[in-house]
Design brief:
- With 350 residues, the protein is mostly helical.
- It has one domain.
- It is 77% helix and 0% strand.
- It is built from 13 helices and no strands.
- Helix 4 crosses helix 6.
Length: 350
């Protein structure tokens, strides 16, 4: 059962690490245009389609669920939506490899640290061996973030001098803005951790779904609809603000852009995005006593996958071996840190 849970978390991590890759291929649209369209698929259309196919009676589950868990799940979804917006901006300014690594490094740390801080159990945790192991993993997370940050500094220097790559192509400048990207990534990491809180708050809804005959492995599907509605509202408001400010509402009707191709790319990105938490929720139900490790496992798989895609798409072309060495080292440290956090959680569960 635990092995199946790890496999499902790996699938979720792959979907999350890969979802932004199609956005890189969108042409002629502003960021807020394709992010909004991506969100319509990721947070509205795909969740409803998947729920209809896998839990045909999902509406009955939501109608019978108690109001407080639903309300809290929706509220944390709204807060997570703030993290989602700023996460998208962090990837825009830092690229996939660096944006995912720094944001999710903070997300893993805060997602583990904030719950016991709020419920007052943090000092009690520090009196246990498992607590110190977990805190050690969080400290190592911060080290990994710092190392990845140094990779970003090296990348920025290379891009400033436009150092040519070995194949003679110029280094991709895109919208790389290191200082702004790091600030956005820190905030995004803190707010994105609210997704973990949304799942915890909505646990009674999942339990009710199981009581009503929904297989445990799919019991998160109705809850995800509520959480993602909250996230969509936040993202839609911000995208609308940007569209008014930048006058980009015309992107969707501009015949000079490949509208059908862009639409399909956004649909693919949104579908991949949704399946990260679809598989995360399924994996969480299979972890048994190791359930506490789910969030850190999810983060580790995403960081690893996003680096593969970032490198494959040439984000670090022409940035020099030193920048890549720092990136590899930082990624390895972050993956190790999330595993250590998971070990600490496992010991705590026992």
């Amino acid at each position: 059962m635990v092995a199946l849970g790890v496999l499902l978390h790996a699938l979720g991590g792959f979907a999350a690490g890969a979802f932004y890759a199609p956005c890189k291929k969108v042409k002629g649209w502003a960021w807020e245009s394709y992010w909004l369209l991506l969100g319509i698929f990721a947070w509205i259309i795909v969740p409803l389609v998947v729920a209809s196919l896998t839990v045909p009676d999902f509406a009955s589950v939501l109608q019978a669920a108690p109001g407080k868990p639903l309300g809290l799940a929706f509220l944390f979804g709204l807060l997570w939506g703030v993290g989602s917006v700023t996460f998208g901006l962090s990837v825009r300014y830092l690229g996939m490899s660096l944006g995912f690594a720094i944001t999710l490094g903070f997300c893993a740390a805060f997602g583990t640290l904030i719950p016991p801080l709020f419920d007052g159990s943090l000092f009690g945790i520090l009196k246990t061996a498992s607590g110190w192991i977990t805190m050690g993993g969080i400290a190592l997370c911060l080290v990994g973030i710092a190392v990845c940050g140094n990779a970003g500094i090296h990348k920025e220097k290379h891009l400033a001098t436009s150092e040519p790559a070995a194949d003679g192509k110029a280094a991709p400048k895109e919208e790389f803005r290191f200082a702004l990207g790091v600030v956005v990534a820190v905030f995004a990491g803190i707010m994105s951790a609210c997704m973990a809180f949304a799942f915890k708050a909505g646990a009674p809804v999942q339990a009710l779904a199981v009581e009503m005959g929904v297989p445990e492995v799919r019991s998160n599907v109705p809850l995800l609809i509520v959480i993602l509605w909250g996230g969509f509202i936040t993202n839609a408001i911000w995208c609308a603000v940007l569209a008014v400010r930048n006058r980009t509402f015309g992107d969707f009707t501009n015949r000079a852009t490949p509208r059908t191709r862009n639409l399909l790319l956004c649909a693919l990105a949104g579908t991949l995005w949704y399946f990260q938490f679809f598989f995360y929720g399924m994996g969480e139900t299979q972890m048994g006593d190791y359930n506490f490790t789910s969030w850190s496992l999810h983060m580790a798989f995403i960081i690893a996958t996003s680096n593969v895609f970032g490198l494959a798409m040439g984000e670090w072309r022409g940035c020099g071996r030193s920048a890549l060495a720092w990136l590899y080292a930082g990624t390895a440290i972050l993956v190790l840190a999330t595993i250590i956090i998971g070990i600490g959680g496992t010991l705590a569960a026992h």
